[in-house]
Structure to design on (275 residues):
């Protein structure tokens, strides 16, 4: 049953490029106040290479905020992103 | 095995290991089997989604509890501080291994304990009974470790006070506390 949901989401993500874009947008919004827009562009992988999106973001945030705050910020960004995807 | 298949296997393994305890936890918070089941599914899906985007999750069990709790409170549109411990939750404590007098006594003690605990104390006690460390409980509830310690100390004090008020033996208190969080499981007073 859990795999049904996983496959549905995965299929939608494969068909609809806006899923990855939405996640990337929310992560960028979370990073910008801390790192500035210029750094965000360099830290986040380019669109289409989403498999390291959260690890890159969390690693960068951890340097400035510490691990707990970074994790909380990434989780909040994903809360907002997953409401829309 | 490619990355996607590997990730699916990871989610399935976690699901098999933790789904039932998470469902029990969710039912305790939501008082709805349907909402609890849906929340658990969403939590595992969220795990898959975040791992798909490269999230490193060092303590999956604690992470699942944290996300599940957050999801449930969002869905119930109610902050944790307003949730009341349902006295009715404790009224149907079937325990075929014991007589009706024991059952009534245990039920009274459990009610006494439930009524005395705050929502936060109850949650801390429940998570502690699930085997989480103070640090993990702090992460799940989004509070400081010191606060967890204080809440647990206060909860234990209240349990002790309930034991004195009801003149109950330690073993009966332990069974009553267990019944608070695992009402469906048979308990033995040993």
């Amino acid at each position: 049953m859990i795999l049904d949901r996983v496959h549905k989401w995965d299929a939608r993500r494969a068909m609809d490029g806006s899923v990855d874009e939405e996640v990337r947008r929310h992560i960028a919004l979370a990073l910008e106040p801390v790192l500035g827009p210029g750094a965000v562009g360099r830290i986040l992988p380019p669109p289409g290479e989403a498999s390291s999106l959260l690890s890159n973001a969390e690693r960068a945030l951890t340097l400035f905020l510490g691990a707990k705050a970074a994790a909380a910020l990434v989780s909040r960004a994903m809360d907002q992103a997953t409401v829309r995807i | 095995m490619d990355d996607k298949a590997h990730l699916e296997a990871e989610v399935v393994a976690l699901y098999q290991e933790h789904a039932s305890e998470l469902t029990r936890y969710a039912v305790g918070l939501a008082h709805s089997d349907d909402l609890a089941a849906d929340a658990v599914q969403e939590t595992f899906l969220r795990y898959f989604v975040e791992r798909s985007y490269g999230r490193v999750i060092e303590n999956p069990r604690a992470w699942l509890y944290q996300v599940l709790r957050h999801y449930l409170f969002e869905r119930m549109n109610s902050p944790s501080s307003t949730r009341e411990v349902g006295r009715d939750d404790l009224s149907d404590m079937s325990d075929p291994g014991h007589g009706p007098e024991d059952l009534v006594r245990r039920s009274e003690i459990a009610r006494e304990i439930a009524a005395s605990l705050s929502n936060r104390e109850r949650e801390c006690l429940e998570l502690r009974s699930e085997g989480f460390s103070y640090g993990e409980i702090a992460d799940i509830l989004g509070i400081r470790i010191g606060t967890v310690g204080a809440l647990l100390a206060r909860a234990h004090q209240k349990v002790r006070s309930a034991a004195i008020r009801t003149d109950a033996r330690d073993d009966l208190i332990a069974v009553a506390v267990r019944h608070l969080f695992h009402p469906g499981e048979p308990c033995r007073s040993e």
User: Anything to note?
Assistant: The mean pLDDT of chain A is 89.
